[in-house]
From TrEMBL:
It comes from Salinibacillus kushneri. This is Riboflavin biosynthesis RibT protein. Coiled coil: none annotated. The keyword Cell inner membrane does not apply. SUPFAM superfamilies: Acyl-CoA N-acyltransferases (Nat) (SSF55729). One of its GO terms (molecular function) is acyltransferase activity, transferring groups other than amino-acyl groups. Keywords: Acyltransferase, Transferase. PANTHER family: PEPTIDYL-LYSINE N-ACETYLTRANSFERASE YJAB.
């Protein structure tokens, strides 16, 4: 399930976000976390099953788009559908008010997840 980022989860969130190639640098990672803490249009969530396994970041743009700008899953838990579950949860949370999409870093993954959902729904 998605849980909203809190300062108490800072080290875990930084660890999860560091799996994204553009967030490898510690200073960049610290800036990103500070932006999520300070900017009301940036929303960071962690994915919890038994443990915290993933992170997903959303940026509200122009009061009409919810842009997924970070998606990261602990490498030992990849290929288990966690990224797709996070994308689905963000869609459920934001789709009534915003157009949910990815940015240049996440767009292909977001579209892939949406295609899987559409295929699953067409089988019903």
């Amino acid at each position: 399930m998605l849980i909203r980022y809190k300062k108490a989860f800072e080290k875990i969130a930084m660890g999860l976000l560091s799996f994204m190639p553009e967030e490898k640098d510690v200073k960049k990672l610290q800036q990103t976390i500070k932006e999520y803490e300070a900017n009301e249009n940036w929303h960071l969530y962690l994915w919890k099953e038994e443990d915290l396994l993933g992170a997903i970041g959303v940026r509200i743009e122009d009061e009409e788009k919810a842009v997924i700008q970070h998606v990261s899953v602990n490498p030992s838990h990849r290929h288990q559908g966690i990224g797709k579950k996070m994308i689905d949860a963000v869609h459920s949370q934001y789709a009534n008010q915003y157009i949910v999409c990815g940015d240049e870093k996440t767009e292909s993954f977001v579209k892939k997840c949406e295609e899987i959902v559409q295929k699953d729904q067409s089988r019903l």
